[in-house]
């Protein structure tokens, strides 16, 4: 599997995560770095060699090296799973066998957003502890084509018109990538809750633990995008993952907003994220009833 994963075109992986090249020059694609904030693209992907280099941090390598930087992990099994989860195709071998030119084209075509009605998608969210009344109220359903095949998934809109998309087999984004904001009222609010992904936000709704404005990062790399929206709040409740990337994002927010930032991850101590806490609690309650 490792060999097949390394053969996945980097342009495909970048696109799945919501990053498209700013310009092309022969076999070189130039991006704004997915690893940091920048205005001038200095992240290069060479499609022939299938390698990358970020001139801003002086690092480069293959797709696994990039995943290690993005997910801040050295766990090879975790990194391979993250990469494979970003490819909406039956197998990574299919992706590896497809030409670089084909994958340099836009990944998603014939996109159609409709209300969430699929029994399979609603059931998928139910398995993750999200009741149908919540999933249908806050999510949509997307149908799209990718490399000649049709797919459908749960869709959650962001502030730039893009969508985070999920189904049982795929986790990705229809670009542009951005944060999502949900306000509880039209007027100003003094508190805000911050979540890493929309599944955790839905989990908080299912648990009934929030009644404030909400910002969903949709990626810890979007902390800089959330910061301007957070500055006027008196309290920032952070429900971020209990991993290296989540703690780093918490540190970035604390550095900027100081004591306004409140770490709520102690609620789900022992779990990686709020959704794992929700599903674990649900399973335990079922076992007690039995």
Briefly summarize what is shown:
This protein has 290 residues and is of the alpha+beta class.
Description:
The protein is of the alpha+beta class. 37% of the residues lie in helices and 24% in strands. The strands form 3 sheets. A 5-stranded antiparallel beta sheet has the order 1-2-3-4-5, covered by helices on one side. A hairpin with a 2-residue loop joins strand 7 (140-146) and strand 8 (149-157). The protein is globular and about 50 Å long. The relative contact order is 0.10. Residues 88-106 have low confidence and may be disordered.
Summarize the helices and strands and which ones pair or pack:
Layout: H1 2-7, H2 10-16, E1 23-25, E2 28-31, E3 43-46, E4 51-54, E5 59-61, H3 63-71, H4 76-85, H5 92-97, H6 100-104, E6 109-115, H7 119-127, H8 132-138, E7 140-146, E8 149-157, E9 163-167, E10 170-174, E11 180-182, E12 191-195, H9 198-207, E13 213-216, H10 223-230, E14 235-239, H11 244-257, E15 261-263, H12 274-289
């Amino acid at each position: 599997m490792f060999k097949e994963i390394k053969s996945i075109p980097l342009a495909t992986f970048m696109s799945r995560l919501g990053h498209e090249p700013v310009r092309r020059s022969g076999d070189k694609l130039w991006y704004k770095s997915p690893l940091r904030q920048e205005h001038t693209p200095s992240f290069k992907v060479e499609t022939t060699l299938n390698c990358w280099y970020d001139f801003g941090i002086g690092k480069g390598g293959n797709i696994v090296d990039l995943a290690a930087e993005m997910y801040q992990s050295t766990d090879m099994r975790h990194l391979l799973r993250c990469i494979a989860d970003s490819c909406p195709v039956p197998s990574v071998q299919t992706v590896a066998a497809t030409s670089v030119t084909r994958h340099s084209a836009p990944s998603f075509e014939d996109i159609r957003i409709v209300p969430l009605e699929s029994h399979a998608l609603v059931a998928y969210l139910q398995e993750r502890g999200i009741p149908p009344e919540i999933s249908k109220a806050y999510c949509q359903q997307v149908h799209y084509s990718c490399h000649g095949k049709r797919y459908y998934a749960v869709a959650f809109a962001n502030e730039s018109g893009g969508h985070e998309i999920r189904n049982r087999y795929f986790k990705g984004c229809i670009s542009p990538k951005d944060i999502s904001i949900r306000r509880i009222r039209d007027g100003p609010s003094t508190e805000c809750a911050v979540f890493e992904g929309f599944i955790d936000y839905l989990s908080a709704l299912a648990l009934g633990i929030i009644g404030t404005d909400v910002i969903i990062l949709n990626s810890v790399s979007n902390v800089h995008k959330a910061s301007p929206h957070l500055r006027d709040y008196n309290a920032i409740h952070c429900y971020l993952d209990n991993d290296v990337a989540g703690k780093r994002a918490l540190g970035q927010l604390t550095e900027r907003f100081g004591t306004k930032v409140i770490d709520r991850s102690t609620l789900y101590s022992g779990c990686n994220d709020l959704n794992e806490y929700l599903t674990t609690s649900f399973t335990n309650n079922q076992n007690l009833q039995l």
